[in-house]
Amino acid sequence: MRLEDIIQPLILKQVIGDLGTEIKGIKIDSRQVESGDLFIALRGLTVDGHRFIDKAISQGAAAVMVEEPISANIPVVIVPDTRRAMAMAAATFYRHPTKELKVIGVTGTNGKTTTTNLIQHILNDQDQKTGLIGTISMKVGNREYKVNNTTPEIVDLQRSFRWMLDEGCKYAAIEVSSHGLVMGRTRGCEFHIAVFTNLTQDHLDYHETMEKYRDAKGLLFNQLGTRYSDDPQFNQVAVLNADDPVSKHYANTTSAQVITYGIDQKADVRAENIRITATGTRFMLRSFGGDIEMNLQLVGKFNIYNALAAVSVALLEGISLEKVKKSLESISGVNGRFERVQAGQNFTVLVDYSHTPDSLENALQTIREFVDGRVICVVGCGGDRDRSKRPVMAQIAEKYSDLTIITSDNPRTEPPEEIIAEMVAGIKGVNLKRYETIVDRREAIHFAIHQAKANDVVLIAGKGHETYQEINGVRYDFDDRLVAKAAIESRRSEG
Ligand SMILES: CC(=O)N[C@H]1[C@@H](OP(=O)(O)OP(=O)(O)OC[C@H]2O[C@@H](n3ccc(=O)[nH]c3=O)[C@H](O)[C@@H]2O)O[C@H](CO)[C@@H](O)[C@@H]1O[C@H](C)C(=O)N[C@@H](C)C(=O)N[C@H](CCC(=O)O)C(=O)O
Ligand SMILES: Nc1ncnc2c1ncn2[C@@H]1O[C@H](COP(=O)(O)OP(=O)(O)OP(=O)(O)O)[C@@H](O)[C@H]1O
Ligand SMILES: N[C@H](CCC[C@H](N)C(=O)O)C(=O)O
Ligand SMILES: [Mg+2]
Fold it and tell me: Which ligand is nearest to the Cα of residue 350, counting in written order?
């Protein structure tokens, strides 16, 4: 596409150079620039992208977009705000894919990955090819690709959406993180349906207060509902959790139609007569699409909420309850979420991505509902992230567990001992239950598994699907599931 066409919608711009220059791609990272690309310089939190213009040019950039005039031997576009201009340029360059692709965005503190996976699974089962973008990976059909952020920058998003359309997708289910919303990573993306899971404490290092955090997630609902059409399939819908008080606030901030789901409060899609076991959940689903008994392999009350959110989306898309039931019942779980590690032992080992106070409490409460023996919990907190959740998570672990082992998660650039000390501050002297601190996560997991007796449950919390541990800025191979398996085997070989 010609540079002129890409920047045509921008009101404030100054161009030095040939507007007819052919642009092959848009890049915001100089290290990824290829011949013919437009490089957009963004002012980041760590560095200023303007510093890398020379590097981008040496890699073959055909033009640059900047906020301050520079002299260069390629066309230069000067705009007041490159981040804002980037959203419009990306939408134009990729020919507005979200006008064709039905994008379902899921936001909330917990449950985004699980819910997007359930939605993708149900839609794929109806031969509605669906892409997925989120914490674990990006999926297009059966293929899976690595991602750096849960919600990628808008240039990557629009490129992926166009690609999904080219691959025959009708839908994309994407996780929309609060960071992503505040940083404008979804600007210019038209959502078909926006889903809210819940709001509890996390990321206060970034958002500072719960109110600001609520408003960050609210940005998704603010941008929804102004596209009114006579075709119901074209109208946008907000799917809200009736049991979370924040939903009322979001209902007030969106122009879209609202559908609610829940368990405790009156809702359009709800679960009644819930039974939770170690291997699944059963409930009566009552909805605007009819009633049906559900028998899911997903464990925990929190997963009923995720299932209800996915059911709401499916019903909005006209899928029958019988088909939704069949599809949901076939799902055994989501990678690293309440995942069982089985190596012939007589106790249960679960790896779960609970890295927030609420998700940890939910995971432990669920285990308490079915455990026959003791609960042993291995938990840590990430470095360079919300410090205020550390003492709270340790306190929750200690409250619900018979033995807690406080260890490292991803310390990133922080000293692990200090993170652990901040966690321990939350439990010291609360009661007489036992806890240990073991800095090395591998050792902590081995210790926990060696302590387990028949019918106990060992919960390894915080890292779920992750296959690395980041210490001092370096990522080492580390997979809780493999480490747990090795621990079970070493215990067996020791007799
Ligand atoms: C705090 C935060 O969100 N940071 C994001 C931000 O980084 P930054 O502002 O520090 O960027 P920077 O390093 O200063 O670089 C500025 C610009 O220079 C460019 N650059 C940089 C170096 C170079 O050699 N050449 C070059 O061109 C960069 O590509 C960028 O465009 O922009 C980067 C590029 O888009 C993101 O990858 C990065 O996410 C980091 C990795 C991160 O950890 N983010 C987390 C907090 C995050 O966003 N998490 C949410 C999920 C949270 C949840 O709900 O659980 C997510 O959506 O992933
Ligand atoms: N609806 C829910 N409510 C509360 N806790 C949940 C819910 N769904 C999942 N969890 C818990 O939170 C953990 C993370 O779940 P999931 O990965 O689906 O959330 P997420 O919102 O994608 O998290 P992240 O912000 O890290 O991407 C799970 O391992 C589980 O313990
Ligand atoms: N999306 C979350 C993931 C946290 C996972 C946990 N293992 C950690 O490293 O803190 C974040 O970036 O805060
Ligand atoms: Mg996620």
Answer: 2
pTM: 0.93
Q: Say how far apart CA 26 and CA 17 lie, in whole Å.
A: 18
Q: Report which ligand 1 atom has the smallest distance to the Cα of 153.
A: 35
Q: What CATH number does the domain containing 163 carry?
A: 3.40.1190.10
Ligand 2 lining (C-beta closer than 6 Å): 108, 110-114, 135, 150, 175, 197-198, 302, 305-306, 337, 352-354, 358-359, 362-363, 464
> What percent of the chain shows pLDDT beyond 70?
97
Tell me if residue 154 falls in helix, strand or coil: helix
pLDDT at 231: 77
Q: What is the count of structural domains for the chain?
A: 3
- In this structure, how many other beta carbons lie within 10 angstroms of the beta carbon of residue 352? 25
* Same domain flag for 312 and 325: yes
Q: In the 8-state DSSP scheme, what is residue 438?
A: -
> Is 280 assigned to a binding site?
no
Q: What are phi and psi of 363, to 5 degrees?
A: -60, -45
Residues 362 and 465 in one domain: yes
ipTM, 2 dp: 0.95
What is the Å distance from ligand 1's center to 148 Cα? Answer: 9
How are beta strands 138-140 and 257-262 bridged, if at all?
unpaired
CATH of the domain at 25: 3.40.1390.10
